[in-house]
From TrEMBL:
Lineage start: Bacteria, Bacillati, Bacillota, Bacilli, Lactobacillales
Domain HTH cro/C1-type: 13-49
Gene Ontology molecular function: any one: DNA binding
Species: Lactobacillus kalixensis DSM 16043
A Pfam family of this chain: HTH_3
The protein's name in its UniProt record: HTH cro/C1-type domain-containing protein
Cited InterPro entries: Cro/C1-type_HTH (IPR001387), Lambda_DNA-bd_dom_sf (IPR010982)
Length: 62
């Protein structure tokens, strides 16, 4: 499975620059804050994590 680190870093940077909290992102996508946190930190790197990162990049046009 390819690394999602570049995508995670891109999303984290975008969220920070735009004042978006992981709790806000969790609400937008109907997820728990813990799920979003796990995906953004890379503690979970399963296919669902990859899909989430890619979806955020597409949705926010990062």
């Amino acid at each position: 499975m390819p690394s999602t680190k570049p995508g995670r870093e891109l999303v984290a940077s975008y969220l920070k620059d735009n004042g978006i909290k992981s709790t806000d992102l969790a609400k937008m996508y109907g997820m728990t804050k813990q799920e979003v946190s796990n995906y953004l930190t890379g503690s979970k790197t399963n296919p669902a994590a990859n899909q989430f990162i890619l979806k955020v990049i597409r949705d926010f046009k990062i």
